[in-house]
Design goal:
11-stranded antiparallel β-sheet, 18 strands, mainly beta, 4-stranded mixed β-sheet, single chain
């Protein structure tokens, strides 16, 4: 699905398919940590810069990013009025609209507003349903206020919301093996050994929907070459997928829903020097609380038993049923399967510091230290009706 991509820096990174594992490449947007791809999927306005920081960054950011950080910084609301309207059309019936406006409300307050709509037909065709896959249907909105406070202090308030409702994702056959051949005999319709095919044979269109929302407060105060920052955020992210997990036209596995709901609160403090000629330093503290609810189901389709029996000697399943004294149709029957429910509460707190020393014009040294406490509380429940 579109929420299961992952970032890799210099060969280091971990998959995002397991919802309980945080990525080793951390993504920050305007100082706020986004723990999963589903929380990073929104379009962003007025990007000021994107920083790619290689290697461990836990002495510069509070979150333990072992492989690196992707730090996205958007432009603050401006006291100079400006804006833009952008409209685009393209192949696959693509339509995109963007609106951005920023300017002053008075001498001490400025605002910005952004809205984005992105729609497009998919580039892959589902031969069975006649619809396209890998389409775009996304909407996002974001509002900001910048308060210019007394004594070289400022407060930035950001509120954002985005949602998506798409048919995704198409897949191709990378290695056509025995299991594919059996599925093909049952009407699967897979194109062998063509991972880049734009034709799929799903018995229904896989759907992925979700939304993200958040509020953040970014306080900054400068005094005599020292800057104090406080970043506070509350975020929610919800995603639901209904996939054809056998990836072919044969009704081997029924529609199998999966959902993940994330609620997160973060608080970070940083104090650092500004543009000293020889030595610069940073000291910070970080708190992170995230609650996750994850649900997943796999339900057998009408041909599941036929599919399984193709790999076993004739009569094996009926023999097992007789040996157990259960009805023959109680094993591998359509509609049976497993449902899983899991929760994970994650609490992280850390203190960190970093020292940058300019030894010569071409040589510098970085010394860093951090102390972190991380706690995960997990529950797991499975019901299997087979």
């Amino acid at each position: 699905t579109p929420t299961e991509a992952t970032y890799v820096i210099r060969g280091f990174g971990n998959g995002s398919y397991n919802p309980g594992i945080e990525p080793s490449v951390a993504v920050f947007i305007d100082g706020v940590y986004r723990s999963s791809m589903q929380a990073q999927i929104a379009d962003l306005p007025a990007i000021e810069r994107i920083e790619v920081l290689r290697g461990p960054q836990s002495t510069l950011f509070g979150k333990n990013a072992t492989a690196g950080v992707i730090n996205v910084v958007t432009k603050k609301p401006s006291f100079d009025e400006s804006g833009y309207v952008s409209s685009s059309i393209g192949s696959n019936n693509m339509k995109k609209f963007k609106y951005y406006k920023t300017g002053p409300l008075d001498e001490s307050k400025a605002f910005s507003f952004y809205a984005n709509i992105h729609k497009a037909d998919g580039h892959s065709k589902n031969v069975i349903t006649g619809n396209t896959s890998n389409n775009r249907d996304r909407f996002s909105i974001r509002g900001e206020m910048l308060f210019d406070l007394a004594n070289d202090a400022s407060l930035r308030l950001t509120i954002d919301y985005d949602e998506y409702d798409e048919i995704c994702c198409a897949v191709g056959s990378a290695n056509y093996g025995t299991a594919n051949q059996v599925a093909a005999q049952l009407g699967g319709g897979i194109i062998p050994n063509d991972p880049f095919t734009e034709k799929v044979f799903f018995e229904f269109d896989p759907v992925t929907t979700g939304d993200n929302s958040g509020i953040s407060l970014y306080y900054t105060k400068e005094n005599d070459g020292i800057t104090l920052e406080s970043i506070t955020s509350i975020r929610n992210s919800y995603n639901k997928n209904v996939q054809d997990v056998d990836f072919d036209a044969a009704p081997i596995v029924n529609p199998s829903p999966l959902s993940k709901d994330l609620d997160a609160v973060t608080q970070e403090f940083r104090v650092f020097s500004t543009d000293n000629e020889k030595v610069n330093w940073l000291v910070g503290g970080y708190y992170y609380q995230e609650d996750m609810v994850f649900n997943e189901s796999i339900y057998f389709g009408p041909l599941w038993r036929t599919y399984v029996e193709a790999f076993l000697p004739p009569g094996t399943i009926s023999g097992i049923s007789a040996a157990l004294g259960v009805p023959d149709n109680s094993l591998f029957a359509a509609g049976q399967g497993g449902t899983e429910s899991a929760t994970q509460d994650n609490t992280t707190s850390s203190i960190f510091a970093q020292l940058d020393i300019k030894l010569t014009d071409k040589l510098s040294a970085i010394i860093g230290a951090s102390y972190m406490e991380d706690k995960k509380t997990v529950s797991y429940n499975q019901i299997n009706t087979d």
